Amino acid sequence: MFTHHQKILVVDSEMPSGGSQNRRVVSFVGGIDLCDGRYDTPFHSLFRTLDTAHHNDFHQPNYTGASIAKGGPREPWHDIHCQLEGPVAWDVLFNFEQRWKKQGGKDILVNFRELDDIMIPPSPVMFPDDPETWNAQVFRSIDGGAAFGFPDTPEEAAKSGLVSGKDNIMDRSIQDAYIHAIRRAKNFIYIENQYFLGSSYAWDFDDVKGEDVGALHLIPKELSLKIVSKIEAGDPESASIQAILDWQRRTMEMMYKDIVQALKAQGCVEDPRDYLTFFCLGNREVMKSGEYEPSETPEPDSDYMKDQEARRFMIYVHAKMMIVDDEYIIVGYANINQRSMDGARDSEIAMGAYQPYHLSTCEPARGQVHGFRTALWYEHLGMLDDTFQRPESTECVKKVNQIADRYWDLYASENLEQDLPGHLLRYPIRVASEGNVTELPGTEFFPDTKARVSWCQISLFSSNAYNLRGSCLVSKLLLLTWVKLGARRAFWALKGIIRLQALVRGHLVRRQVVATLRCMHAIVKFQEIVRGRNVRLSGNGSVLQENTAGRKKDKKSADLLGTSLRVWKLSTNVFTTKMPCFVSRGPRYYSILSYLAYN
């Protein structure tokens, strides 16, 4: 398990009808972190709330030294959360119980059976024949190393719908839920997610296998195949961010190529964006009288100053939500990436729900899922339109694309005459006739930054050391991290991680002999690779020496990224896997929304 990524809140609450001393369980799941900088409104103001709602909650991690004293723009935040009542709320409570018993022991937690005289047992909140009733289910990404009570054998795991890995049992029900909902979709799928990358086995590579990237989950490929099946039926600047953007581009490109191929097979000459479209969110505000006046100014010619003068900033899309046919919704904390969908990496939790009396069987669904989706679109587009009632129609898709294109032009323009009418912006890419994805003409960088839209796409898997050192992707990220973190500090960091893990599990392991030896062995490799020397205790020492230092006699260039990938696979060094987490965050321009429709 990489990170405990679940965000849950479970509380006792009064009975809905009142007049009873008994309490019930209410749970909350979704994307909202319980920390500063998360409160926002549908207006996502950049400057106008700095002397009111956000004066003591100013959050802007994208600039060094940003503060309320220097003024906006603040980082606007878009997120989705949900409240659960009834038996499904107890499922979230049981998830907490499993995690507690695994990490803290069985004897410390209060026995819920002792609360029978206070808490009502799991029971429905609404009558089954109520037209507004819901069916809801909890999904997770978690393994037996993080939750108590998992089966011990693959056979028992299979009976419980779990997945067996190498010496591990995993609950991968979030990925399963996404795939099931995608396959059931009839008309359209609307997704809001912080990340969108995966199905790397289907990406285009020259010299690296998609399996080596490790982003193998199925969701993007399932989406593109769903669109294809309908067609055939006739119907920023930091290295880590740029790496994510590149992988998102490859994911988009894989999907668009599937769509283009299917259109050509049917003899259709249509824009693939009529079937699959990606958006981002942003805001721009004119200055009004009475606004908060900062006492200081940002550094001249900094991104901070540029954004302040241009009065614009991207809205951080932190939501993790999917709506299918206006009848089914998934809300949680799981990103569409390998870490969230794997089951053995980040622990995640989500819920899927629908209203049985509001399904799109004979006519379009018009329940609360539909109402929520139209409310989101009103927030993003700043307008209502009758075509939005049929999001699967070509007319609706084209209209939304036209609006988003216009809003992007207004956002990126040098001139500012009025507030941005809405927040939905075209993601600045162009889809070529063969499905290749490039940046929009004249849009080399995101506005006011040096973050490339083109993602330095060739350098990621380049074997040329000079291209590698000059790139702004994962390879450079690892090189810079290696240079900044010496072996001694790396060793103590690893030792601290081991002890922290031991403490969380309820006991302090004083002498981690085996783990320490492994860490020391990995650090020896680590240090020697950076210095370009032969790695001792390794059968590939001479090969690694050539790949990292190059061969002088024939002027062979070093293959640092290829070497790092191979060493990572051989050593499974926790620290090298975790290193990108220690690099300071840059501009967050990787948040996207996607909207799919098919006739």
Automatic annotation (TrEMBL):
Catalytic activity field: a 1,2-diacyl-sn-glycero-3-phosphocholine + H2O = a 1,2-diacyl-sn-glycero-3-phosphate + choline + H(+)
Keyword Ribonucleoprotein tagged: no
Annotated PROSITE patterns: IQ, PLD
InterPro entries membership: IQ_motif_EF-hand-BS, PLipase_D/transphosphatidylase, PLipase_D_C, PLipase_D_fam
Key words of the record: Calcium, Calmodulin-binding, Hydrolase, Lipid degradation, Lipid metabolism, Metal-binding, Repeat
Gene3D superfamilies according to UniProt: Endonuclease Chain A
Domain PLD phosphodiesterase: 1-38, 313-340
Pfam families in the record: IQ, PLD_C, PLDc
GO cellular component: plasma membrane
GO terms classed as biological process: phospholipid catabolic process
Enzyme Commission identifier(s): 3.1.4.4
KW Electron transport (keyword) present: no
MF GO annotations: calmodulin binding; metal ion binding; phospholipase D activity
Protein name as it appears in the record: phospholipase D
